[in-house]
Design goal:
The complex is a heterodimer. Chain A contains 11 helices and no strands. Chain A is an all-alpha fold. In chain A, helix 4 packs antiparallel against helix 5 and helix 4 runs antiparallel to helix 10. By secondary structure, chain B is an all-alpha fold. The radius of gyration of chain B is 21 Å and the shape is flat. The chains are: A mainly alpha, B mainly alpha. Chains A and B meet through helix 2, helix 5, helix 6, helix 9 and helix 10 of A and helix 2, helix 3, helix 4, helix 5 and helix 6 of B.
């Protein structure tokens, strides 16, 4: 990080140091002014009132709303992570297949689900699954969230696997074929395991997307963390506080995951075979020392 | 087929109107978040510690918060508690609050995209800029950022595509846009449910795929030859 920054400016001399110090103080003052303004506005609407925050000191709020919501969020995210990996593995193989038909069909599926907003899939599944009688109305939000997340993130994983395999040295596949493996066997046994290792940081970033997008379930009445937090906010007229706490929980979870992605990418950077000639795959293969957090692409 | 045609008779105009709302959300939010994102990127690469810390904190907070929370916050807190009125028109007010929410969220991603572009600029460029006597801001403006933007086209394209798709979340911000209309249509016209989904999905595919192709093409065409 510090390397990447010193690229852009010299070690400052006495004059520049003074200027930086002055600007630094101005920056601090501006930030304080911003915080002060926010607090002022909050105070004018009685949002700093300790009672509004103290609601969250009650154990019953946590045991009845926050923790069950968090549990549902984590459950939906965990199941979706597993199912997206399976989906991505199947369609990633499909996109790498030599059979033209399989290749074409997998490409259509992957491109389609990457281009369609997840929320549309969730809304559709939520309403139609219950109507068709395939899923009990009570569990249809949960099923819709999991399938929606799987279709989108599974397609992204398929792309990751494909670009990971393309980033491998050609010799890996040639060696596989030379010892008598079929194309499929060489993919399964030799190429994809290495591609997955190389793509691990990007995969973890995708898990952040899954965790964040599980909050879309709020819109289709899935009783996850945001949904329950809103209930708390409505019931205790402390909506601001409830949403802030809810956001903080998400931020902490995601921040931990992105730190994990960074650590993994640092540890892997020396171990992963890479085709020097191939174009670098997205952020995952970028060595961490260029200063981009490995989790920089966790777009929702 | 007849059922599908009658759907267009009934909802055709509203389908186009709603999707137009998504495109407008995209346009304004893209503009605002690009400006804010660039500012944040400059802060994050600047020599001033407090600005760097601010930029880092901003990115870490907003990148890790679900967009759904931000847009819900806009409606239930900015409007519900603080009675924020950007426009006297009730619906336009929600629309503008949603633009703020979308911009605040995507600015964090634009910032990171631009920063990844800055990292494609070789060390020698910055050194040469300093050698001819440019200080930080002129060097950033004349030498670093123009190259950085060209290197950041592909990641910025990804952010733009995510933004287009994320405008559907504005349903949580009480904006009349396509996902809300799709929900209504699914509830009243479940007989053509699949076709409703495919129609709306296709509208996004039609917008998103060309933009993806265009940014990939542009990023190759404008790549700085080194």
């Amino acid at each position: 990080m510090s390397n990447a920054q010193s690229v852009l400016f010299d070690a400052p001399g006495p004059k520049a140091r003074r200027r930086i110090m002055v600007l630094n103080i101005i920056g601090i003052l501006l930030a304080l002014a911003l915080i002060g303004y926010i607090l002022y506005v909050m105070n004018s609407k009685d949002q700093l009132n300790p009672e509004r925050w103290a609601v969250f000191a009650k154990g019953s709020i946590w045991s009845n709303y926050v923790l069950p919501g968090l549990l549902n969020t984590l459950k939906a995210a965990a199941i979706s992570i597993v199912t997206s990996l399976v989906f991505g593995f199947i369609f990633g193989m499909g996109r790498l297949a030599h059979n033209k038909l399989i290749n074409f069909l997998s490409s259509v599926v992957v491109e389609f689900f990457r281009a369609v907003p997840v929320l549309l899939m969730m809304l559709f599944l939520w309403i139609m699954l219950a109507r068709a009688g395939w899923v009990e109305p009570a569990s249809s939000p949960f099923v819709a969230v999991v399938i929606g997340l799987t279709l989108y993130n599974g397609s992204v994983v398929a792309e990751l696997i494909r670009s990971g395999v393309h980033g491998l040295p050609k010799g890996q596949r040639e060696a596989g074929i030379a010892i008598g493996l079929t194309r499929g066997q060489s993919l399964r046994l030799i190429e994809i395991p290495q591609a997955l290792t190389a793509m691990l940081p990007a995969l973890i970033s995708q898990f952040i997307v899954i965790l964040k997008d599980s909050a879309l379930g709020y819109i289709i009445n899935f009783n996850e963390l945001l949904f329950n937090s809103k209930l708390v906010g409505t019931g205790n007229s402390n909506m601001l506080q409830a949403l802030v706490i809810c956001a903080l929980i998400f931020i902490l979870l995601n921040f931990a995951l992105s730190k994990l992605a960074e650590i993994v990418s640092r540890r892997l950077s020396s171990r992963v075979p890479r085709d020097k000639k191939a174009a670098p795959a997205p952020s995952a293969t970028m060595p961490p020392d260029v200063g981009i957090p490995a989790a920089g692409n966790n777009l929702g | 087929m007849e059922g599908y045609l009658s759907l267009w008779d009934e909802y055709g105009e509203r389908i186009l109107e709603s999707f137009w709302a998504n495109l407008q959300l995209t346009f304004w939010a893209a503009l605002a978040s690009l400006v804010l994102g660039t500012l944040l990127a400059i802060m994050r690469i600047s020599p001033i510690p407090s600005l760097r810390a601010f930029g880092t904190a901003y990115v870490n907070i907003f990148r890790n918060t679900p967009l759904t929370i931000i847009l819900t916050f806009g409606v239930l807190v900015l409007f519900g508690v603080f009675e924020l009125k950007l426009s006297s028109d009730f619906n336009l007010n929600f629309f503008q609050i949603a633009i703020i929410g979308l911009s605040v969220y995507h600015a964090a991603f634009f910032c990171e995209a631009i920063r990844s572009g800055v990292n494609t600029v070789p060390l020698g460029q910055a050194e040469a800029a300093r050698a001819i006597g440019l200080s930080f801001l002129p060097a950033a403006r004349i030498i670093i950022l123009p190259q950085a933007f060209r290197g950041a086209i592909a990641p910025m394209g990804n952010v733009l595509i995510a933004l287009i798709k994320n405008t559907t979340v504005a349903i949580a911000g009480s904006v009349a846009e396509i996902s809300g209309l799709m929900k209504t249509m699914l509830e009243y016209r479940a007989d053509v449910g699949i076709l409703i989904f495919l129609t709306v999905a296709l509208m996004f595919v039609i917008v998103v795929l060309p933009i993806g192709a265009l940014t990939t093409w542009l990023s190759k065409k404008l790549a700085v030859a080194r």
